[in-house]
Amino acid sequence: MTNRQYAANTDSLMNEESLQAAPTVADALCTGLLAGLNHHERDVLARHARLQSFAPGVALFQEGDESADAMLLLSGLVKLCRHSSQGKECVLHLVHSGKFIDAGVLFYEGGLPISAVALQHTTVLSLNRRAFLHTLENNAPLAVSLLGAMSLRQRLLITKIAGSQGRISVAGRVAAWLLHRAKMEKSATLRLGVTQEILARLMGISRESLSRELSALSAAGIIEHQRRSITLLDHEALKLRAQG
User: Residue limits of the HTH crp-type domain (predicted)?
Assistant: First the structure.
């Protein structure tokens, strides 16, 4: 299924309120990393940009697709995932609003290695791949900022891989993820938005292990865990766990 088919399939699934609340392309081009564009760059990209909406459970793009446009998440929540030959899902990252879903789509060769799936009603700004690459070639600050965002995700992935090899404990993985999420959201209170099952897959641990660790952190006064949010109370204690 192509990206256009994905978008077309969502048209009938989005409610009127969601469509009325959608921003304009001009508004979207002032969001997140794109806020630093000059007027000329913004005008050029506007001619190669479109808004798309996706219902929960709908794929924005899928592993194996030949290519995809760069997508800036304006609202909602998206998971990046990959499936094994047996169909088992590995959740690689959760993308929150204001972030590019996966800047790697600009550079992947031989097909996309991951899928992006909406977990909530989602709106994105799609930027034509060639047009956006041309902008990056002529806007070094934007390119550097995008590299910085990609490096933060790579750090999380490295932690996950090391954990799967037994080099990082469950406590270390959970602490590292909480600290990373707090840094990304610039807030000590993290909005979860997904089930513990998805969070556990994201960290590469079982749901039971995640539940036990969150309970232990709560009992120690390091976090405050509620159903839909986690508040970090002791950053230093979390740093020690992440390093240990």
Answer: 168-236
Highest mean pLDDT among 2-16, 23-37, 78-92: 23-37
**Cα–Cα distance between 137 and 163 in angstroms, integer?**
36
What's the rounded Cα separation, in Å, for the pair 139 and 134?
9
Task: Tell me the C-alpha distance between 49 and 243, whole Å.
Answer: 42
Distances (CA, A) of 118 to 15, 59, 82, 101, 157: 15, 6, 14, 11, 20
Q: Going from the N-terminus, what domains does the chain have, and what CATH number goes with each? A: 25-139 (2.60.120.10), 168-243 (1.10.10.10)
Element (H, E) at 126: strand 122-127
- The pTM of the full predicted model, rounded to 2 decimals, is 0.66
